[in-house]
Design brief:
Helix content of chain A: 25-40%
Signal peptide (chains A, B, C): 1-26
Shape of chain A: elongated
Domain Cupin type-1 (chains A, B, C): 128-258, 301-474
Organism (chains A, B, C): Carya illinoinensis
Pfam families (chains A, B, C): Cupin_1
InterPro entries (chains A, B, C): Cupin_1, Seed_Storage-Functional
Number of strands of chain A: 26
Distance between the termini of chain A: 42 Å
Oligomer: homotrimer
Structural class of chain A: alpha+beta
Radius of gyration of chain A: 26 Å
Largest interface: B-C, 102 and 98 residues
Amino acid sequence: MAFKPKIPIALLLLSLLAICAGLALAMQDPELKQCKHQCRHQRQFDEQEKEQCQRSCEEYHREKKAREGTERRRSEEGSSREESYEEEEFGGEHEEQNPYVFEDEDFETRASTDEGRDQVLEKFTKRSKLLRGIENFRVAILEANPQTFISPAHFDAELVLFVAKGRSTITTVREEKRENFNVEQGDIMRIPAGTPVYLINRDENEKLYIVQILRPVSVPGHFEAFHGSGGEDPESFYRAFSWEVLEAALKTRRDQLEKLFGKQRQGIIIKASKEQIQSMSQHEETPPRIWPFGGDSTHPFNLFHKRPSQSNKFGRLYETDPNECKQLQDLDLMVSFANITKGSMAGPYYNSRATQISVVIEGEGYFEMACPHRSSSGSRGQREGSGSSGRRSRSGPSYQQSRGRLRRGTVFVAPAGHPVAVIASRNKNLQVLCFEVNAQGNVRFPLAGKNNIVNEFEREAKELAFSLPAREVEKIFRNQDQEFFFPGPSRQQEEGGRAFE
Amino acid sequence: MAFKPKIPIALLLLSLLAICAGLALAMQDPELKQCKHQCRHQRQFDEQEKEQCQRSCEEYHREKKAREGTERRRSEEGSSREESYEEEEFGGEHEEQNPYVFEDEDFETRASTDEGRDQVLEKFTKRSKLLRGIENFRVAILEANPQTFISPAHFDAELVLFVAKGRSTITTVREEKRENFNVEQGDIMRIPAGTPVYLINRDENEKLYIVQILRPVSVPGHFEAFHGSGGEDPESFYRAFSWEVLEAALKTRRDQLEKLFGKQRQGIIIKASKEQIQSMSQHEETPPRIWPFGGDSTHPFNLFHKRPSQSNKFGRLYETDPNECKQLQDLDLMVSFANITKGSMAGPYYNSRATQISVVIEGEGYFEMACPHRSSSGSRGQREGSGSSGRRSRSGPSYQQSRGRLRRGTVFVAPAGHPVAVIASRNKNLQVLCFEVNAQGNVRFPLAGKNNIVNEFEREAKELAFSLPAREVEKIFRNQDQEFFFPGPSRQQEEGGRAFE
Amino acid sequence: MAFKPKIPIALLLLSLLAICAGLALAMQDPELKQCKHQCRHQRQFDEQEKEQCQRSCEEYHREKKAREGTERRRSEEGSSREESYEEEEFGGEHEEQNPYVFEDEDFETRASTDEGRDQVLEKFTKRSKLLRGIENFRVAILEANPQTFISPAHFDAELVLFVAKGRSTITTVREEKRENFNVEQGDIMRIPAGTPVYLINRDENEKLYIVQILRPVSVPGHFEAFHGSGGEDPESFYRAFSWEVLEAALKTRRDQLEKLFGKQRQGIIIKASKEQIQSMSQHEETPPRIWPFGGDSTHPFNLFHKRPSQSNKFGRLYETDPNECKQLQDLDLMVSFANITKGSMAGPYYNSRATQISVVIEGEGYFEMACPHRSSSGSRGQREGSGSSGRRSRSGPSYQQSRGRLRRGTVFVAPAGHPVAVIASRNKNLQVLCFEVNAQGNVRFPLAGKNNIVNEFEREAKELAFSLPAREVEKIFRNQDQEFFFPGPSRQQEEGGRAFE
């Protein structure tokens, strides 16, 4: 209290807010809060089910508290590290939500018709300043009914598509040349910024489900769609010009232009006839795709046609190779796909440089992550100059658990350096698509299983670091002989899963 | 003590202003406002002419409203997209001006003497957060009388010069070597950051007019000039050192140093004698310039000595080629120059990646641009989750026209992806210098004339996109057979031009 | 109409604030203020000594004012340039401290035990927005007692170490391989982001003193340490996972895990036994280091084994060569080390592109720097449009001196383009380690001595720039025939040094 009196007048209001936030945090654990929040936003639940769900959260929370009582007590000590970080960076702002998990309600519907919709995830920095490093990436998900047409547009953003489900034909125009690409599940395709593009769902029955990552080229963190072909809906950008200019540019009388740019009213995603679909999906005149492809080819390539980089009975990991995949190189991006067998888990591990943006494609489960930014520590003591012993205070950061439930459409972020584990429910495989931003030179360091980093330390380092005989340390870190994918928590399998399953 | 309580007051005021701004926006159309604003700032107008001019604005505005009544009604629907964008990005801040046009009053005079002046355009981000992508570029214009000397300086910015008018000798010092370059209209020259440079107007009669683009290397968006040689005006930075240090460094007694650094009082741009000019313009000992030049040559090159990349009787476009022009490559910059024949127009077109900063060198006219950021849309409806039909709401962005009058010295910005057209008055050719920022891999997509993108679409795509038979679409988009430059709006030519001409 | 009057109100308030700030500035010179500030923060001083010290500041200040009276009068003219800059950039915020000097109290102790501590300099942008260009670099200093172990960790930052004192063995784990490096004074080593690293002070008597520069890869300007090996202190990040997940991942029962992650309580820097030290310092199985080394080797290299790039009896300068030092290339970083002989000085000079972050390793002295950002000018006059003569106002920027005392641990920043000189006390050599950020293509331009830039100007340019006969200018700029290092201020040597010595 007596610590900050220098700024008080200006920050009086802010302090009040901070105190309120503090109280709120003390009264309600963020995990509990999020659990309840998720209950309230289950669309398929009715009011009664929502209440029941929230009660389960509380019950789970009470149990967990009791179970972990002793070791989690540290979070009550001193000032929170989050606070000091926030003060340092942003003048006391508080994050109330888990900054790393995004649900349905965090998407904005940019376009929607009876035949489908395009949803864009909110800006990462809107959620938390901790995500500034990926500010200039946006995630979007396109869904379209069978036999539909998605209207031509260009974007002021670099665009990478992943076909999560269904079959599409994607058409682009570059350098006065049209190219058509038939794509299917697992295909990745880069659309350079500004390129006119349109596509169809060429399947008669299956929905098309495309996950997109966009990197804006003009306004950092923000992009727009530009529809030239259209009328009232989608509105054509030609209509923003005066009739005089349009008449001169297109050498066409106004009445004809009014007709041309006034007819379309069905929106961006519309039904196409069987004949139209057939015709458009047979235009692929480009040579067959060969793996690996070179140069700056814009051809899509299929992630699932590669050998998995990790594979055992607990899961499979498919990854783009930066050398093969020139299209993604200048975006400093890698794409990977993990299929975690039901009841199994991936990690813990961490990425050395990359921040991983993951989108759940199918299945259920949860993740756990160790976060120094959000945790409490006794760091205040050291600030006042120490080194002189007496009562000892903690000498490094403290880590708090970030945890989130995963289901289809959930997006979660694992920043560089942060240890993370992903656990599949025991009912269904968990399929996760990952975009790795800042990918160049990235290394994945395993924290368990074969080749985990502790195993590599010298005997003396193990002794000194853990304050235990080296052989005891070694024994534990050599127990697990699988790599990357492991059998999941046994408790979960035996008891039916408390942990968000 | 009395220093800090200001913040609450400031916030109070800001809140009031925000409310006022909201009201004001409702009451007055931005375009009308800008038109009147321009009237009030015509230096050559007397008070009566200014009033007349403002009345014309109102008249024009009334007419336009009536004319466009039906199709522009949409702007009244729902919440504005600008607002939602602004809220998303910047917490509700309002743009009051057209963010893309800059006039005389937006320049700051950094240096001024009887012989000339150096004017710097305000930071782009001061005008609008939408210009964050070009934050780290600044535009400046130097004017100097015949037979003048512009004092030596270095800058904490990369500097690219374009000689818009006149003849100069530019001298730089690099690696213990002086180099002199005789430059003339159309010459482009890169001055690396920190390089000492001085120049002369070597012409006996003509003014020198140099347009500069600067990319700061130290403080993003901000640069400074450092004058070593000088005295009181320009002040020499040597004077900021203590006499003790200067005495030791220059091994010279203080009285002599006081004389050395105390004499100059005439400022940065000063008259030179005929003999001095003659001597300095004959020092060019460097080999003659050959086109194309290679390596990291710092030699200037002339844009007008190239073959134009577009040329017909309606205009000519000269462009630097990134491969030939190594000097600009690491700045990710291209320079182009459009000479639009009187009564003609360029575009509409858009740049795929580059943001185009244009400076009007000569002539008059106007531009029109389609802006999704500033326009209104019914997007609110979709936010609340749709896809379930019933009453349909618009499925994509809406575009607003950004329009601005062009005359000598006007700067306007066309961000990546934004469709834009530039129209010359019928009295005089319109000459526009363009800096394209973020130039690598940029493609210009034509929206009218030969090779326009709609022509490339498949028949089915045209049908589906416009909801019209393909042949009707094709007929219109094939009417115009010119490329890039077209005859201007006929109405303008017949009626004497309502549109800002 | 109701639209514009807000701006005058806003300006009114700003003007009032500006006036207040002006008064405050007039009342207390920043240099005096800093001098006194330094007095108050001398830890070794008692209250009486602090007061005495502050009185000396005032005395020195009075004398200096009198001495420099006439030529410094300009600072009273008109509005300050700092103001206009600050308004332009940051809405009127005022810098109260010298933004370029950092002392003990500007470090935060991140980790501290009886055996040593790790201190991190505050974010540069916390001090001043002027340092935004180096926002994403952080400086840290590690001190460890003889025969100690620094616990394993990885960082979400690229890390460059310089061994300022002592002998260490540094161990890293990369690609399932451990590497040990014996390093000593002068060694520079790059640790890629995310790499697990631990080290020892292998000397029996000498303290280890390592200066680090870090470039965060995840959150700009912010990094965290991740300790996996540890227990309660340092806290292991494994503890942030649930026991269920840890049991499954490490295939080990909870009671054993609780023991493993509960034992360590001694902190990050701990005593090691003689045997442990001996064993760990003999593990270096890597081939001997050869100079120059190629590829992307991660081997350390020694700056002092190179030929100095500048050397005379007044000082020596050692520099990394970007071509030899591949490790630093992608960080756009250079490292240099200046050993300035007692009573001598380096510069004045400036860097063309690089911003120089200097850390004083040993000795005492001071620096002087010319700063356009912080100085006053008559620029207000020109804003209202001039060029029309009458009463003349200054035509360019004005420069203010930034000056700071240097002693062990002081950090100071010289931004690109800023002329700077560093002066050693006459008692002891001054040793300064410099990190040059934005190093690619950087050129150091000398402002005195051999090859100074003024010497390179043409005769006519000298005449015109200084308004003096060319031979008078030449005479002075040729007096000093040494290069880079010069004998220091004679006054300082004769009188015992007023100037902060």
